[in-house]
Task: inverse folding
């Protein structure tokens, strides 16, 4: 049975241009002047093998070398390829954990206060390590929990989802209690006093408690340095307005409540209001 080019394209995902490349590289016999080429079973097997090897990261030139070099050590080559893929896997998993942290919080890490203190490559590596949510088992569980709550109605929760929630509750530490204070108790106290206005001393006192609590959490996980009031304002206010964390908070606070908290926090950070904070971020970068 002969296979047409269209069949090869549809079933093996190889374009006409790629097939010509295989022929030019000597991996397949060239079309002998016929207008339409048929591929036999051996051709299909060879194309399949090339696709598998390319999927593992082999370049066409390397595949040609495999075929033409009688002394080619395939075992050694595949062992090296596994090592390369393991490194790539680690890199992808790090970036994935980084992306999940950004999705959860709704923002990217702060850049150095003064450009020049740290090169971007060094900053990126540091951010990938610090913001990789999969490095923190409890953080990863929290991210999964957030996904469950946001993506499924309660009647669709599975036993594994409920088990994850119980695990989170059972594994709560003193630090988690502090986090609960900063993320639930104090914000509720702020919302109850909303009528006072975001810049009222009582409101600002509550925000200061959250700020100090956040910094104690940072020190508790051995992070270098503490948040400045401006950094805190930018980070904490965004947690009520963007990202999965903000979506979760809408279960406890109205949109108006969330904006009021963000406004109060922005004022604490030295901004006139939250709009001024956003404008500053757009002007100077995060």
Result:
């Amino acid at each position: 049975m002969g296979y047409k080019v269209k069949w090869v394209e549809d079933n093996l995902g190889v374009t006409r241009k790629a097939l010509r490349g295989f022929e030019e590289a000597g991996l397949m016999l060239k079309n002998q002047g016929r207008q339409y080429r048929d591929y036999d079973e051996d051709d299909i097997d060879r194309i399949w093998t090339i696709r598998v090897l390319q999927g593992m990261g082999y370049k066409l030139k390397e595949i040609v070398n495999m075929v033409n070099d009688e002394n080619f050590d395939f075992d050694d080559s595949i062992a090296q390829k596994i090592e390369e893929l393991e490194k790539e896997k680690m890199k992808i998993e790090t970036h994935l954990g980084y992306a999940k942290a950004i999705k959860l919080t709704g923002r990217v890490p702060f850049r150095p206060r003064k450009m020049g203190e740290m090169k971007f490559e060094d900053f990126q590596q540091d951010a990938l390590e610090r913001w990789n949510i999969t490095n923190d088992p409890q953080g990863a569980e929290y991210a999964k929990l957030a996904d469950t709550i946001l993506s499924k109605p309660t009647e669709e929760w599975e036993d594994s989802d409920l088990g994850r929630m119980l695990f989170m509750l059972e594994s709560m530490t003193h630090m988690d209690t502090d986090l609960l204070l900063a993320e639930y108790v104090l914000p509720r106290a702020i919302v109850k006093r909303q009528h006072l206005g975001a810049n009222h001393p009582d409101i600002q006192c509550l925000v200061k408690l959250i700020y100090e609590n956040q910094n104690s959490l940072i020190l508790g996980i051995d992070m270098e340095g503490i948040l400045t009031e401006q950094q805190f304002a930018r980070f904490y206010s965004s947690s009520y307005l963007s990202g999965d964390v903000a979506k979760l908070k809408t279960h406890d606070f109205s949109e108006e409540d969330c904006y009021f908290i963000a406004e109060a926090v922005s004022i604490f950070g030295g901004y006139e209001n939250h709009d001024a904070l956003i404008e500053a971020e757009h002007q100077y970068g995060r």
In short: The chain has a mean pLDDT of 81. Residues 147 and 153 are 11 Å apart (CA to CA). The chain is about 65% helix and 0% strand. Residues 74-105 form the longest helix (32 residues).
